[in-house]
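User: Hi! Is it possible to get a structure for several chains at once, not just one? Here's what I have:
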Amino acid sequence: MRALDKKLFRDVWRMRVHALGVALVLACGLSVMVMAVGMRGSMERTRAAYYAERHMADVAVSAVRAPERIAELLEEAPGVETIETRVSGVALLDLPGVSEPPSARLVSLPIEGRPRVNDLTLARGRWPDPARANEVLLSQAFAEANNLVLNDRLDATLHGRRQTLRIVGIANSPEFVFVAAPGELFRQAKRFGVIWMNREALARAYDLDGAFNDAVLLLGRNANQAETIAAIDRILEPYGGIGAYGRDRMVSDRFLSEELRQLSTMAIFLPALFLITAAFLVNIALGRVIATERSNIGLLKAFGYSNAAVAWHYAKSALIFAAIGAFIGSAAGIALGRSVAELYRDYYHFPSLEFSASPATFIGAWAAGFAAALTGCIFSVLKAARLSPAEALTPPRPTTFFSAGPTLSRFEASLDAKSRIIMRRIVRFPRRAGTTALGVAFAIALLVVARTMPAEMDYLLDVNFGVANRQDVSLTFTEARDSTVLHQVERLPGVVYAEPFRLDDVILRHNGRTVHEAVFGVPEHARLSQIVGRGQRVMAAPATGIALARALAQKLGAQLGDEIRLEQTRGRRIATSVRVTAIVEPMIGSSAYMEIAALSRLMREPGRISGAHLRMDTSRYDAFNREIKEIPGIAGVSFVGQAEASMRSEFEQGIGVMNFIYAAFAAIMAGGVAFSAARITLAEQERDLATLRVLGFTRLEVSYILVGELMALALIAIPAGLALGTFLSIWLMQLFQTDMYAFPFVFNPAGYAFAVAFTLGCVGAAAMVVRAGIDKLDMIAVLKARD
Amino acid sequence: MINAAPSDQPTPLFALRGICRTYGEGQTAVRALIDVNLDISGGELIVLLGPSGSGKSTLLNILGGLDRPSEGAIQFRGAALTGLSEQALTRYRRQHVGFIFQFYNLIPSLTARENVELVGEITDDPLDAAEALELVGLGQRLDHFPSQLSGGEQQRVAVARAIAKRPAVLLCDEPTGALDVKTGVRVLEALQEVNQRYGSTTLIVTHNGDVARMGARVIRFGDGRVRSVETNTARVQPSDLVW
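Assistant: Yes, the chains can be modeled jointly so their relative placement is included. Here is the combined structure:
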C-alpha cells in the first residue's frame, strides 16, 4: 500500500465518528431508495408476470343480458384476441358465527376448462366439479380473514334465492389483487370477497341461461384499445352494455398502479433529504480536516505531489464515507425490501413476490451516495488543491472577525461576552452555521411530515364518517326499488332512522371529455349522507342541477353554470343535459350529486331508490342482522361504523410503525448533524474554551458556549424546519392525491410541537455527549500551544 | 535543599513546603519538581529563570491552580491550596489569579475591550475595561479584534485582561517569548506598571536572563529543583533591558 493511502486510512480512522455520522445519514436515504426502487421494480415485474401468466384482461365490460351468441361477434371485433363471457353478480353471505353478513362478488367459471382470460391461481384445494352446482372457489384474502377453510359451507343469497355453497378451493386472480366492495374505496378483506362458481349454476340463479352479463377480453398486440372499446359498446348496446373499459378503470389494477406511484414518490422524497444532509456533513467534516491538514498539504506539495493528487487524496476520504454509507444502506435496503415484500405478499396475495433490486438500483444508490459525498467535499478539496505549498507551510492567520452591522451591533451589545462569542461565530461562518441549521431543519421537517400525514388521514376519516357518511349501516338493493320499501326498512329491528339514496352509473360528457362516474341522489337536507362543500361544510343537495366533486369537474373541464351531458349506463339509458349548480369537495371519491327526487325524475323513474342509509340502535344489531339475511333483493350491507373502526385501527398500526421509522430517521439526521457540528466547534474552539477555563470560567459556563451555539442554530432551524415541513406535507399530499382521495392540509399543533421538542432533544443529547470533551480539556497545554 | 529567603511580611501570600511533581509512573516517571520550598510575599515581582524542562512552568501551573503537586503543601494567604476540589480551584483562579500566556490566547471573536470585559463578567469588582487597556497603552484600540492587532498589542490586551479582575497574583508564562525586543519591553513595562499600581504579586517565567534584571527576586531552576533564590538589589527598568 502506498504511504499516502496508509495516511488516508489512518485519517479516516481518526475521523471515524464523523465518517459514521455521514455514513448513517447516507444509509438512511439509500436504504429507502433501494427499498422503494427495488420494491417498485419487483412489484412491476411480479404484476407483469402474473398478468401475463394468468391472462389478465385488457378490457372488461358488463351488460344487462347478452345472448351467448353475441360472444362470437365480440370475438370478431377489431383487436380482440380472446374473450371470456361470464355471469357475475353480488350476493349477501351468511357465515356461521358471523353476525354481520358480508358480501361477495360472484364470478362464473367456464363450463369447460379454465378461464381463458383472468385465469386463477389455486392456493389450496381443487377446481369445482362442473357436475356439482354448489362447489365454489373462494378468494384467499376473504377466506383467511374469516377463517374459512376447504370444505366449509357458506350460505349465499343469490338473486333473492338462498343457496348453500361448499368451498373446494382457495384461489387468487389477477383481476382481484385488490378487492373492495362496490362503491367502497377501502379494502375490507373480512367484509367482501370473491366467489368463483360453475357457470350453469350461477346463470340459473341469475336467470341468465344461455346468456352473459359480463365479459373480459384480451387484445392483440397491435390493437387500438379505443377502437375496440367503441366496437364492443356498439355490439352490446342493445343488450344493456354498460360501456367497456380498459385497465385504467379496473379497480384492482388502479390501486396497484397507485401503490407503485407512491413507491416512486418515496424513492425520491426521503433519499433526497438525506443525501443533501450527507453532502452538508461531508462539507463540514472535510472543511475541518483540510484546515487542520494545512501543513501536511504544504509538505505533500513540497515533496512533489501534484495539486490533482492532493485533491484526489482528500476526495477519497469522502468517497470512503460514502462507500460505508452505501454499503450499510444497500444492506438495510434489502432487509427493508424483504420485510415490505412480505407485507405486500400477505396483503395482495401475489402468487410470488420476492424483493429483488436490480444491479441498476444498487449502482444508482451507490452513485447517488458518491455524488452526494463528492458534492459535499468539492469546496474543501478545491481549496486544498489551490493552496500554494509556501502558504500552506506557514501557520494560518488568526481567524478574522469583523464588527457586525449597526443593527446587529446593538443586539450584540445587549449580550454577555459568552453569548457574543456564539453569535459572532455564527455570523462569521454562515455557511457552516447554515449547514447545521439546515440539517436540523430537515429533521424537524421530516417529523412534521410524519405527524401531519396521519393528522390529514384522521381528518379525512373524521369528515368522511362524521359528516359525509354518518350512517351506521348502508343497505344496497340489487336493483332500484319503489320508495315504499323504505317503510319496510324502517320496521327492521334496531333501525332508528332510514334515509333513501339513489345511485346511477352514468357517463358524463363535457367539452369532448368523457368520464364514467356515479351520481348520488340524496335528500335535499340529508341527515346521514351529507354533501361536503368548501371548508368541509355541509351543503344541501342542489334542488336543481347537479353538484360535481371538484376532481370530477376538473376532469370534465366543467365550471359552475356549464351544461353537461349525462347518460345512464343501465336501465332506460336516459341521456339528458343538466346544469352544474355546485362544485363540492368530498375528500373521498369524485362523484356527482343531485337531489334524490330530481335525479329519479331525470332518470324517469320517479320514486325509485337504490338503497338506504340507516341510523341504528346498535344494541339491536344481532336481531337486525338475523332479519336482513332473510330479505331478498339486498345486494349488500355495509356496516359503516365497523368499517371506520377497522380502518382506524389498521391505520393506527401502520402509523405506529411509520412514526417510529421517521423518528429514527430524524434522530439520525438531527443527532448526526448536531454531533458533527459540536465536535468541530469543540475542535476549533478547544484553545479558546481551555483559555476560559484557565481564566476561571466554570465547566458549566464554558459548556454554555459549545451547547449554546448548537442550540442557537437549532432555534434558528425551528421556523425553517416547520415551514419546510409544511411545504413538504402539502407537496406530498398533492403527490398522493388521486381521484379517489383529496387530502386537505391539516395543521397539527401537537405534531409540530413534537417535531420541535424531539429534534431539540436530539441536538441537546448530541451536544451533551460532545460537551464531555470540555471536562478533558488540557489547560496546561493551552498555555504553551499555538494553533 | 535551598530555602527561599524569608519575606518581610509575617504571612506570605504563598507558602510552599516540600513540593514535588511527578508525571507518569515507574520507569517512565518524570520528576518535574523536586522538594521546592518557597515563601512569596504580596506585591513581589519575581522572575523564575531556567532552561526548558527545569520545572519553572510546572511551578507556575501549580501556583495557578491548574495542576496539583504530587507531594507537599501550598498555602495561599494561610489557607491550604493543596487538596482543593476542582470547583474550588476554579473559584480560586476566578477570584485571585490573572494569567498571561506566551501566545496571548485572546478570544478571536471578541474585541480588545470585550476580551477584557469577559473577565469582568466573572469578577465582583473588576477594573473598567477601557481603563485597563489605557493602562497598557491601548486606549486607542479598544474595538479592534485580535486579528487586527500586532503580537505585542495582543499580549498587552492579555495583560489588561489579566489585571481587570485586580488579581492577587499575576502569573506570566514566557510573556515575551513570541515578541521582538521592542514589543517585549512594552509588555514588561505594562507588567511592572500593574505590579506597582495594584500591588499584584507578579511571577514571570522566562528563560531570558536579561528579563531577570527587572525582578525583585530571581529564582533559578534546574532539573526540577530551585537552584538559587537571589534578591535583586539593582533592579533595572524594562526600558533599559536589552536582549
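Chain A touches chain B at residues 397-403, 416-418, 420-421, 424-425, 428, 687-688, 691-699, 701, 779-780, 782-786 (CB under 8 Å). The mean pLDDT of chain A is 89.

User: Great, thank you!
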